[in-house]
């Protein structure tokens, strides 16, 4: 099983197993990129320690009997695999990549294939299994990827392009072309990540914008207490580098300037009698002695097809501290300085089931207590059930679905906790 944690900086990550014999790696969950990559043993300057007291690992292709580097002549080394600023070097002949992230950090290296290990649960028996996937062996990292406060072993890209593990497993018939998550938003963090669909009758869907590299949605308006704000819908239109994307690799939510200014003014006016707005290092914050739920309005993002993502005050505000009977809250929604793209980061995705139905080209969500178990689809792309999957003590099973319960929480350095990840009836075993 994957295990997912939440750091104090709201970095959600999983622990996976790669290679033969299987070795563990910590990887950040990122829906804003496609490639799974981990630090390579040949990496020059890759971090070996971090500030979280977590052991860091490097992948050594020579230590895995099932590892195979992908050469430039391999049919898998095509235009959809090599990034625009990476070319096959004449000396090594290894199929290479170079990735640039929104925060300015970069990772580059070469592709390998190796086994991702998991257990298939049939009845009450665990059957050891694995699937060969292509991923990156990072030989260079820059920017935030080198900072000891944030660095881990790699990034687990969950995008919809052919290099993502979701797409690869779907092509193999191991899992459907879909995944879901339910991220806890309390201080313990954690939640559930599923390679497959979490089933809930309250999930509302909106179509993905076609032919886009990210999970782009058609955001049509922003409402406060059910009333749409006066924002020109054209500021949310998708073209070039504009539009609205869902990205778990981003902590906050970034709104285009026109939308943010209108929203912050509306919120400030609605709470002017009970809260005082202050600026803190460029962020809009509020000081109040009243209960935040009773004081602040409900905000919703309204999407194509009538699907609204409703946010309570605790889902768009971040509590900073309290003093003299007053509480200091800062906006978790911020202005997208210097860019025209709205990014919905994990602060607005918390306490929700979120379903990425790539086969149906739609994305859905519903509010949910992510400390509870969830129903998981067990139908793969070939239409077959993958056997019965259940967590210990959870044996109920409906037609085409199973009940999955999160693991108990434990402490690991800075407030971390376990979650489960299922592969439709499969678990990727970590311990």
Overview of the molecule:
There is one protein chain. With 431 residues, this protein is mainly beta. Helices cover 7% and strands 40% of the residues. The protein is built from four helices and 33 strands. The chain has helices at 165-172, 257-270, 292-295, 346-349, and strands at residues 3-6, 12-18, 23-30, 36-39, 68-69, 96-100, 106-122, 125-142, 154-157, 178-183, 191-195, 198-199, 204-207, 216-217, 219-224, 227-228, 243-246, 253-255, 275-280, 283-288, 299-303, 308-311, 317-323, 326-331, 333-335, 341-344, 352-357, 362-367, 374-377, 397-398, 401-404, 421-423, 426-427. The strands form six sheets. Strands 1, 2, 3, 4, 5, 6, 7, 8, 9 and 33 form a ten-stranded mixed sheet that branches. The protein has a six-stranded mixed sheet with strand order 13-28-27-10-11-32, with no helix packed on it. It has a five-stranded mixed sheet with strand order 14-17-26-18-25. The protein is globular. The chain starts with a strand and ends with a strand. The relative contact order is 0.18. Mean pLDDT is 80; it is low at 120-126 and 381-431.
Task: Tell me the β content.
Answer: 35-45%
The chain-level structural class is mainly beta
Largest sheet: 10 strands, mixed
The helix content is under 10%
Number of alpha- plus pi-helical segments: 4
Count every beta strand, where a strand is a DSSP E run of 2 or more residues: 33
| Rounded mean pLDDT score | 80
Q: Shape from CA axes?
A: globular
**Whole-angstrom Rg:** 22 Å
Give the low-confidence spans. Answer: 120-126, 381-431
Distance linking N and C termini: 8 Å
């Amino acid at each position: 099983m994957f295990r997912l944690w939440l750091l104090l900086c709201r970095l959600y990550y999983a622990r996976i197993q790669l290679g033969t014999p299987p070795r563990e790696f910590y990887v950040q969950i990122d829906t804003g990129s496609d490639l799974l990559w981990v630090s390579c043993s040949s990496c020059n300057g890759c971090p070996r320690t971090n500030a979280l007291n977590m052991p860091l690992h490097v992948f050594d292709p020579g230590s895995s009997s099932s590892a195979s580097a992908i050469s430039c002549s391999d049919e898998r080394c095509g235009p959809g695999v090599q990034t625009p600023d990476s070319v096959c070097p004449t000396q090594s002949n290894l199929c290479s990549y170079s990735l640039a992230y929104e925060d300015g950090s970069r990772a580059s290296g070469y592709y390998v294939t190796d086994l991702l290990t998991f257990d298939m649960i049939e009845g009450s028996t665990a059957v050891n299994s694995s699937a060969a996937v292509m991923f990156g062996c990072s030989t260079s990292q820059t920017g935030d990827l080198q900072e000891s406060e944030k660095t881990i072993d790699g990034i687990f890209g969950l995008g919809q392009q052919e290099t993502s593990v979701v797409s690869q497993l779907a092509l193999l018939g191991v899992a459907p072309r879909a995944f879901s998550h339910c991220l806890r938003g309390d201080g313990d963090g954690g939640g559930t990540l599923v390679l497959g669909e979490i089933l809930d009758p309250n999930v509302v869907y909106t179509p993905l914008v076609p032919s886009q590299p990210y999970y782009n949605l058609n955001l049509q308006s922003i409402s406060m207490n059910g009333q749409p704000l006066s924002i020109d819908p054209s500021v949310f239109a998708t073209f070039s580098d504009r539009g609205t994307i869902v990205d778990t690799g981003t902590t906050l939510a970034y709104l285009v300037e026109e939308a943010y200014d209108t929203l912050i003014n509306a919120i400030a006016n609605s709470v002017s009698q009970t809260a005082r707005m202050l600026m803190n290092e460029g962020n809009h914050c509020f000081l109040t002695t009243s209960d935040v739920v009773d004081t602040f309005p409900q905000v919703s993002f309204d999407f194509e097809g009538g699907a609204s993502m409703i946010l309570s005050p605790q889902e768009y505000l971040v509590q900073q501290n309290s003093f003299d009977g007053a509480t200091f809250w800062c906006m978790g929604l911020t202005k997208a300085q210097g860019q025209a793209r709205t990014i919905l980061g994990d602060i607005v995705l918390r306490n929700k089931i979120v379903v990425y139905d790539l086969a149906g080209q739609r994305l859905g969500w519903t509010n949910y207590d992510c400390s509870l178990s969830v129903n998981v689809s067990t139908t793969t792309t070939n239409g077959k059930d993958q056997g019965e999957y259940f967590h210990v003590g959870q044996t109920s099973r409906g037609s085409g679905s199973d009940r999955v319960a999160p693991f108990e929480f434990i402490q690991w350095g800075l407030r971390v906790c376990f979650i489960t990840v299922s592969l439709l009836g499969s678990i990727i075993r970590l311990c």
